[in-house]
UniProtKB/TrEMBL annotation, chain A:
UniProt family annotation: Belongs to the TrpA family.
Name this protein carries in UniProt: Tryptophan synthase alpha chain
Taxonomic path: Bacteria, Bacillati, Bacillota, Clostridia, Thermosediminibacterales
Active site, UniProt feature: 49 (proton acceptor), 60 (proton acceptor)
InterPro entries in UniProt: Aldolase_TIM, RibuloseP-bd_barrel, Trp_synthase_alpha_AS, Trp_synthase_suA
UniProtKB/TrEMBL annotation, chain B:
Gene transcribed to yield this protein: trpB
Family per similarity comment: Belongs to the TrpB family.
Protein name: Tryptophan synthase beta chain
Entries under Pfam families matching the protein: PALP
Assigned GO CC terms: cytoplasm
Keyword Mitochondrion: no
InterPro entries, A to Z: Trp_synth_b_CS, Trp_synth_beta, Trp_synth_beta/beta-like, TrpB-like_PALP, TrpB-like_PALP_sf
Pathway named in the protein's UniProt entry: Amino-acid biosynthesis; L-tryptophan biosynthesis; L-tryptophan from chorismate: step 5/5
Protein EC: 4.2.1.20
Amino acid sequence: MNRIDERLYSLQKTGQKALITFITAGDPDPETTGELVVAMERAGADIVELGIPYSDPLADGPVIQRASARALKAGIKITSVMDIVKSIRKTSDIPLVYLVYYNSVFRYGPERFIKEARDAGVDGLIIPDLPVEERREMADIVSSHGMHLIPLVAPTSHERIKNIVEGAGGFVYCISTKGVTGVREEIETDIKAYMEEVSRYTALPRALGFGISGPEMAKRFRDYCEGVIVGSAIVRLIEQGKDRRRMLSNVCEFVSLIKEVL
Amino acid sequence: MPGRFGIFGGQYVPETVMNALAELEKEFNTAVADEKFMEEYRYYLREYAGRPTPLYFAENLTKKLCGARIYLKREDLNHTGAHKINNVLGQVLLAKRMGKRRVIAETGAGQHGVATATAAAMFGMECEIFMGKEDVRRQALNVFRMKLLGARVTSVDQGTGTLKDAVNEAMRHWVAHVDDTFYVMGSVVGPHPYPTMVRDFQRVIGDETRAQIMEKTGRLPDYIIACVGGGSNSMGIFYPFYEDKSVKLVGVEAGGMGLDSGQHAAKLTRGSIGVLHGMKTYVLQDDEGQIMPVYSISAGLDYPGVGPEHAFFKETGRAEYVYATDEEAVNAFITLTKTEGIIPALESAHAVAYAMKLAPKLSEEDIIVVNLSGRGDKDVEQIADLMGVKL
């Protein structure tokens, strides 16, 4: 069984919600990325998304764009991200998901990319610029390697949801609001109605992401979904952390505060 | 497959805009089939943009080069000074038809931004233009024009601060404001249906050229030469000649400081297949798919991708893609100005440069049409700088 399914299933049994955290691989450096993952797991993260840095991250707001740029400047490569995963796997069994833009996969070679990711210990893939219309070829490769291609739905998707979730596994990434990633003061979407709409089409766990600023917002939405995704708010702590130890403990504290309300 | 040119094209964009693209495609298809809409579009092309533009026999240039007869398709004579207005009028009319109240656009050299700001002013729409920080600096005059026209100009300092980053930022903005905002794409790039839609709004250039050259010479040209950044002026003039295999189509990319210098924008000549801005096409990228910084003396050609239909034309051999360096383009800029009294845009000067290379190898029976996509007013300051003249 895929680690993602295992984890989500056991959470569901105990009535808990999943906390999915995102960081950019290689930001600020490869070694710290590994440490961050392990630290977040200890603080209560259930699944970790590792962003593969990309030069033109179309779905991301300024915080994650800057993280990508920092990692690229530090010389991170796809192979080094694979190495980070391998080293995490020596000590941790936390479900890991890559967030990767399609051109990285395409250029690296989809077969090679998926095989190496699976061998390193990755459980799923999120490709934010690969809508259902373009994903057929990828979906087959991903599932033949026992991984999940996580489907994304948006508040604008409506009847498209049916096709998007068809044959998908893992969880449904529910984009909370129109726009790119980034911390928001307020989310205008009627989350309750939106999540109900999604569940009309699928029994997969629903994870809500984009704009979740912290524990309060997580608490407000916890009853409507099976998990929340927090990215930019964490990446911002990494960016602001001048001292490494201090930064790690800030991230841990923030993650555990969110986990508490879930 | 709809939205594809062979393997090229597609819709590699965030889910949030997929419905908007579907709606746009539907609206576009009904609009072009609606004679009333097309009549309105042609009305504005004629009465506002100033079409048809002349197909001018460049007699002096022809004499100087001692070879093929050279004709210039004078897109520089359009209102706002470039071919961009053809496409913008089409898209803004479509935006109006769809009930959008604001338009956004990206711009490199500023020509597309100026055209969009112009149409927005005329049709009473709110307008925001995204422009790379570096281009804002290089094209100060066009920035001022856009502001005069009532547009808001947003300087983008992500990435390389050029056209590529302006497209990224405009797309990100569109994702967030998709309900009331229409994205006026400036070239035959982006996710489907943009490449097809922009081509269809630009094909007026080729349609006119065909009628004009038949009238003037009684036959089709042997060569059509146009510069390629994103590729809209070239696709606009190429497309109506697609079936005429005797007409050789030549796209001229920005060779910058030379292809081996790494400082160029020749994606069809030196790039590889990848995905950028929602389309599968030729891009300049490294081994891991990171988009590489590109360079050209001309801000309008400074783009690492190209329209997917051009990628298809290259793969199938229907068009040939060559390049001209900065130096050759500047030389052509000066030559055309002196011989014909026409100051071309630096973008168009790339096409002129290749014509100047080709014409002497041909006979006077041969006919070359060069698409003069825009005028050079915006580049005069840059040329003065190069010549060491202080304005």
